[in-house]
Write a structure and sequence with these properties.
Blueprint lengths: L29 E2 L1 H10 L7 E4 L7 E2 L3 E2 L9 E2 L3 E4 L13 E9 L13 E5 L11 E4 L23 E5 L9 E2 L10 E3 L7 H9 L4 E5 L3 E7 L3 E2 L10 E2 L2 H12 L2 E8 L3 H11 L5 E5 L9 H6 L6 E8 L1 E2 L3 E7 L5 E6 L3 H20 L8 E5 L4 E2 L5 E8 L5 E3 L8 H6 L2 E5 L5 E2 L4 E6 L3
Parallel strand pairs: 1-19, 7-8, 14-17, 14-18, 15-16, 18-22, 20-25
Antiparallel strand pairs: 2-13, 3-13, 4-12, 5-11, 6-8, 6-9, 7-10, 19-21, 21-22, 23-29, 24-28, 25-26, 25-27, 27-29
């Protein structure tokens, strides 16, 4: 599923394989951003559905409509601490002339055997407890004397019931303070649609209707690794010519933000054999692999050396894109006939992150079966003049406010991580534009919801 590789053919080549040395050599093909994205997305699909326990399904999308197999609540129950009564026994009740009822029992939540409430009787009942036969409503404890005989209900619900009476101080309407069976969900109701993202409240609903597991589209497992012998882990001493590995942290966090399960692999040195071994070791837990660094034209571009042209672990097509930053990119399938998609990103921090947002995030969202594969794009007025190289789609960092104001952040350099951290959008300058006057409208890719 790799994209086509541009090959150079010299029409003046002789039949014996020699070529006219004066013949021009065609330049390598330059891919547009849209062409590369389309090629990448053509190589991935929604992951097969699996059955997961509820908490394991958090962040996944349903692969089935969920229909209730029972009522919720499953029985009539009290919504208040108080007394289950017959309404006729409370007609005309006042504080001066209360209705005096005999308490025939105590009903707690989860009670099995229930006392029957007859004329002139009441049953003390707790919130969530089932309504007893004969009772038509609940008189909240605040509407009674709590069985104290003093006209005050304080602490009345904490003492066990003896043979006692309760004074109801106001009338109670039929059905008052009762949660009716099926009033929330009835048997046969479709409670969640296929494609629903499962968060805390959806998982709570599934548990409430008795589902212990659910069929979902799983979160893709993304392995992220950085390459470069100069990399050291944050917190370790940085020697001459060394830098802290920031890309693997940025890209792993971005994968988590996109909805994936992400695994960060520490920096891999510039050794093709070591890289192949690391990739082989990671294949068993990966639905997608993302690398950064080693994709340009340098002498130590280890990812190209390890993977270009079938270097053992698989074949990746390396290409140049008409974009800035992020010109060098790679995409292919590694790890056998079925193949695991691998996206190889540039090593400069800003280039790596922008490449992730443009290409990797849509892959993760596609694997999830999410409806919003791409970041939202809005139009906004840029208050300053922008310049861009001819033939490149430029992505500048910016800040966008809810009222539509836009300002660039930092410069064009692909190493400016300070400016990147302050940005919440990408300002897009089209390929055919080299100078964009102040006050022009631009496309803005929003990086936050």
């Amino acid at each position: 599923m790799t994209g086509p590789t541009e090959r150079t053919t010299d029409p003046a080549a002789c039949c014996d394989g020699t070529a006219d040395q004066a013949s021009p050599v065609a330049a390598p093909r330059m891919w547009t951003v849209d062409e590369h994205l389309a090629d990448v997305l053509a190589g991935v699909t929604v992951l097969p559905a699996i059955e997961l326990q509820l908490l394991d399904a958090r962040g996944c999308r349903l692969d089935e409509d969920v229909v209730a197999t029972g009522d919720l609540p499953p029985f009539d129950n009290s919504s208040m601490d108080g007394y289950a009564v017959r309404t006729a026994d409370t007609v005309g009740a006042t504080g001066e002339y209360p209705s005096v009822l005999t308490v025939v029992g105590d009903i707690a939540a989860g009670a099995g055997e229930l006392p029957k409430v007859g004329p002139g009787q009441a049953a003390r009942i707790m919130t969530g407890a089932p309504m007893p036969p004969g009772a038509e409503a609940v008189a909240p404890v605040e509407w009674t004397d709590g069985g104290t005989g003093t006209g005050r209900a304080a602490e009345a619900m904490t003492a066990p019931v003896a043979d006692e009476e309760v004074r109801v101080l106001r009338p109670v309407k039929a059905g008052a303070h009762i949660r009716r069976r099926g009033s929330d969900i009835a048997t046969g109701d479709r409670i969640l649609d296929a494609g629903t993202l499962l968060g805390p409240t959806q998982l709570g609903l599934l548990a409430a209707v008795g589902r212990g597991s659910v069929r979902v589209r799983p979160r893709p497992r993304v392995v992220v690794l950085s390459t470069g012998s100069e990399l050291v882990q944050p917190g370790e001493p940085v020697g001459p010519g060394q830098i802290s590995d920031s890309n693997s942290f940025t890209l792993t966090a971005a994968a988590l933000d996109a909805g994936a399960i992400a695994y960060r692999v520490g920096g891999v040195p510039d050794d093709a054999a070591v890289l192949r071994a690391v990739l082989e070791d990671q294949l068993g837990r990966a639905d997608l692999i993302v690398t950064s660094g080693g994709v340009s034209v340098g002498a130590y571009d280890v990812v190209k050396e390890a993977l270009q042209g079938g270097g053992g672990a698989g074949t990746v097509d390396f290409r140049k894109l008409r974009m800035q930053p992020g010109k060098p990119q790679g995409f292919g399938m590694i790890g056998g006939p079925a193949g695991i998609p691998l996206l190889a990103l540039p090593g400069n921090p800003v280039s790596a992150y922008i490449s992730f947002e443009l290409f990797v995030r849509p892959v993760i969202r596609t694997m999830l079966g999410a409806p919003d594969v791409h970041r939202p794009v809005v139009r906004a007025v840029c208050p300053v003049e922008l310049r861009s190289p001819a033939g490149r789609r430029q992505f500048l960092r910016g800040r966008y406010t809810p009222d539509g104001r836009l300002e660039p952040v930092g410069g064009e350099g692909s190493h400016l991580v300070g400016a990147l951290a302050r940005a919440n959008c990408l300002i897009t300058v089209p390929e055919e534009v080299t100078v964009l006057p102040a006050g022009s409208e631009v496309d803005v890719v929003l990086l936050t919801a």
